[in-house]
Write a structure and sequence with these properties.
Blueprint lengths: L3 E9 L3 E6 L2 E6 L2 H6 L6 E5 L1 E4 L4 E4 L1
Antiparallel strand pairs: 1-2, 1-4, 2-3, 5-6
């Protein structure tokens, strides 16, 4: 389980944040309120996550 990610925000959209941690970019699906509350791309931030594992997919939600 991935509890949180802390690192550089690489990209923000209305429903996704990409955060770089130890050289790996993680795409996290987030609600608009979370996306708006995170720092601008290029700055450090933390996203608390829930990992959803299914037969066909592994997703992170923040």
């Amino acid at each position: 389980m991935i509890y949180s990610l802390t690192g550089k925000i690489l990209k923000k959209t209305l429903d996704t944040v990409v955060i770089s941690c130890a050289g790996v970019g993680y795409a996290v699906q987030v609600p608009l309120t979370t996306a708006e509350s995170l720092p601008a791309p290029g700055r450090e931030g933390t996203v608390y996550t829930v990992m959803n594992v299914t037969e066909n997919d592994v997703s992170l939600y923040g």
